[in-house]
Specification:
Elements (H helix, E strand, L loop, with lengths): L1 H4 L6 H36 L7 E8 L5 E2 L7 E2 L5 H6 L4 H4 L1 E10 L6 H16 L5 E5 L5 H11 L6 E4 L12 H13 L9 E4 L2 E4 L4 E2 L8 E2 L7 E4 L2 E4 L5 H5 L14 E5 L8 H7 L4 E6 L7 H10 L4 E6 L14 H4 L2 E2 L5 H12 L5 H8 L4
Parallel strand pairs: 1-4, 1-5, 5-6, 6-7, 13-14, 14-15, 15-16
Antiparallel strand pairs: 2-3, 7-8, 8-11, 9-10, 11-12
The protein binds glutamic acid (GLU).
C-alpha cells in the first residue's frame, strides 16, 4: 500500500530534464504564437509606401497645353505662352502625385519643332537620366509633332527611367481643358517603376502609347491619337495606369545605355505620292544633296512608274525608303515592287515621318542598306 500511495519523487536528473523540456516547449510556443505576426509586420513595413514623393523632371517645349485662347473666340488660340512654372502651378493636384522640378527648352507650337530643339531636349533628358534624385521625366509638347519627338527620343533613350510625353488638344484656358488631366496622368505614369524599360511613352486622353505606334489621327477631338496595328500599350483605369502588354523585347536588345546623338544629321526628305505624280520632284532632293528620300506611297508603298524609275536612280547612290500614306498595315519587301532589284528599303509599320527620323539617325552611322533595312524591323 505504502508502496502504491507513496509520493513519487523524481530523481534530480529527471527533474532537470523536465524543467529544461518545459522551458523549451514554452519558448517554442511563444515563437509559434508570435512568428506569424512578426513576419506580417515586416512585410507590411517593407511594402508600406514611402512618404517621400517621386521626383519628376517636367520639361516644357510649348504646344497647346501651354497655349491660351485669343479674345472671346474660343476656337482661336496660340500654342506656347505659359512657361513651365505657370504650367505646373496651374495644376495644384500635381503636388499630391510628385515633386516637380521644371525645365523650359522651348515654347513653340510643335509645327516649329526643329533639330536644334531636339538637341536641347535630348540634353535635358540626358541630365535627368544621370541624376539619381530624379525618378522620371515628363515632356509637355504640341500634339502636331508629338509622335515625331517621342520616336526621336525613343531611339536615343530606349530604356531606363520612364520618359512620358503629353500635350492637350484644347488650350489651357478653354472650358473643359484636357491639359491638366493629361499632365496628372503623365506624371503618375512617369512616377511608376513599372513604366521603366518600355521605351518613350505618350500619355493622352487616359491612353498610353509607345513612341513607335502612336499616330495623331484627328485634327481637333480630344481623343486624337491611336496606336494603329499594335493597339494601346495601356490605359488609365480608375486613375491608375494599367498595361496591356509586357516590356517590349526590342528594348532588352539594346538596353545598356542612352545612344549618343550624332553631331550632324544627314538630310532626308519625304515625297508624298498622288495620282499623276510628277517624277521631277525627285530631282529637287538630288540637287539639294539629300542623302535619303522616304516615299509616302500608295497602299504598300507604291507610286507611278516614272517616279519609281527616278527613285531607283536616286537609290544608286543614296537611300530610298518606301513607306505608306495609309495609316495601318506594313510595307513589306518585294511584293509588287522588286526592292532587291531597285535597291529600296521598306519602312515596315513606320509612318513616313518616323521613317524619316530613323533613316537620318541610321545614315549618321552607316550607308549599308542591309543594316538600315534591319533597323526598320519591328521586334515586338
Ligand atoms: N500646332 C499646335 C502644336 O502642335 C497645335 C496642336 C496642339 O498642341 O494641340 O503645338
Amino acid at each position: 500500500m505504502n508502496e502504491t500511495f507513496r509520493r513519487y519523487k523524481p530523481s534530480k536528473r529527471l527533474q532537470k530534464l523536465f524543467f529544461t523540456h518545459s522551458y523549451a516547449m514554452l519558448l517554442g510556443l511563444l515563437i509559434l504564437t508570435f512568428m506569424p505576426y512578426s513576419s506580417v509586420n515586416t512585410a507590411v513595413r517593407a511594402a508600406s509606401p514611402s512618404t517621400a514623393k517621386p521626383v519628376i523632371k517636367l520639361i516644357a517645349t510649348g504646344g497647346t497645353i501651354a497655349g491660351s485662347s485669343s479674345g472671346t473666340e474660343a476656337t482661336k488660340y496660340s500654342a506656347g505662352g505659359l512657361n513651365v512654372k505657370k504650367l505646373v502651378n496651374s495644376v495644384p493636384e500635381l503636388a499630391h502625385v510628385a515633386s516637380i522640378t521644371g525645365d523650359q527648352v522651348s515654347n513653340v507650337g510643335s509645327q516649329d519643332m526643329s533639330e536644334d530643339i531636339w538637341r536641347a531636349l535630348a540634353a535635358s533628358v540626358q541630365a535627368a537620366m544621370q541624376n539619381n534624385a530624379i525618378n522620371g521625366v515628363v515632356i509637355t509638347h504640341g500634339t502636331d509633332t508629338i509622335e515625331e519627338t517621342a520616336f526621336f527620343l525613343d531611339q536615343l533613350f530606349p530604356c531606363g527611367k520612364p520618359i512620358v510625353l503629353t500635350g492637350s488638344m484644347r488650350p489651357s484656358d478653354a472650358t473643359s481643358a484636357d491639359g491638366p488631366q493629361n499632365m496628372i496622368e503623365a506624371v503618375k505614369l512617369a512616377s511608376m517603376p513599372s513604366s521603366q524599360n518600355r521605351g518613350v511613352l505618350v500619355s493622352m486622353n487616359s491612353k498610353i502609347h509607345t513612341a513607335r505606334d502612336i499616330r495623331k489621327n484627328h485634327t481637333e477631338n480630344t481623343d486624337a491619337f491611336s496606336s494603329g496595328n499594335a493597339g494601346l500599350l495601356g490605359e488609365f483605369i480608375n486613375g491608375k495606369p494599367r498595361f496591356n502588354r509586357l516590356v517590349r523585347p526590342e528594348n532588352s536588345r539594346h538596353c545598356l545605355s542612352a545612344q549618343p546623338l550624332p553631331d550632324t544629321l544627314p538630310k532626308v526628305g519625304i515625297l508624298y505620292a498622288y495620282a499623276g505624280m510628277d517624277a521631277q520632284l525627285v530631282q529637287f532632293y538630288a540637287q539639294q544633296n539629300y542623302q535619303g528620300i522616304v516615299l509616302a506611297g500608295f497602299g504598300n508603298g507604291n507610286t507611278n512608274k516614272q517616279t519609281l524609275d527616278a527613285l531607283a536612280k536616286f537609290a544608286e547612290t543614296n537611300i530610298v525608303v518606301r513607306s505608306s500614306r495609309g495609316v495601318n498595315g506594313y510595307v513589306s519587301r518585294n511584293i509588287e515592287i522588286n526592292d532587291d532589284d531597285l535597291s529600296f528599303v521598306t519602312a515596315q509599320d513606320l509612318s513616313p515621318q518616323k521613317a524619316r527620323i530613323l533613316l537620318m539617325l541610321q545614315l549618321a552611322k552607316t550607308t549599308n542598306k542591309t543594316l538600315i533595312q534591319k533597323a526598320f524591323y519591328k521586334t515586338h
